[in-house]
Amino acid sequence: MKKTINRSFVLFAGLCFFLSSSCNHTADVSAKPAISFQSDVQPVLIGNCTQSGCHSGGDNESFSLVTYDDVMKSVNPGNARDSRLYQSVVGRTEHLMPPSPQPMLSDKQILNIYVWIEQGALNN
Fold first, then answer.
1. Which domain does 65 fall in, by range?
2. Domain assignment of residue 6, yes or no
3. d(CA 22, CA 8)
4. Three-state helix/strand/coil letters over the chain
5. Which of 117, 98, 96, 97 is closest to 40 using CA atoms?
């Protein structure tokens, strides 16, 4: 009886470990070309996030996305999933950005932001 309990416990513990670790996927971006902040990310933010006074750094704006330094306040370099910027554009925050009726960012734009952050969010 004791061997059955121990074997069951080991199988249960192994299954729990497998299930918890399998939900933690990270993409390998090492083979992706370098994403440039100035060429690939900043134009997306300027064109989609700073329109109509939104995130444009005005006097009442607490979440500006105009400059690299502004953007870095919402980025955890090397960890897109833990970055407020990425969470906002994929809808993992209380507000999906950009808000309706503005169109969502394209898959390519979101991917570029993701890869740029994962690559270290360089000012390039």
1. 35-118
2. no
3. 21
4. CHHHHHHHHHHHHHHHHHHHHHCCCCCCCCCCCCCCHHHHHHHHHHHHHCHHHCCCCCCCCCCCCCCHHHHHCCCCCCCHHHCHHHHHHCCCCCCCCCCCCCCCCCHHHHHHHHHHHHCCCCCC
5. 117
**Structural tokens at position 80:** 């897109």
At CA 72, angle to CA 40 and CA 88, rounded to 5? 75
Placement of tokens 């833990």 in the chain: 82
**Residues 66-115: pLDDT tens digits?**
999 999 999 999 999 999 999 999 988 787 888 888 889 999 999 999 99
96: in domain:
yes
Structural domain count, the chain: 1
2-17 pLDDT, tens per residue? 444 444 444 444 334 4
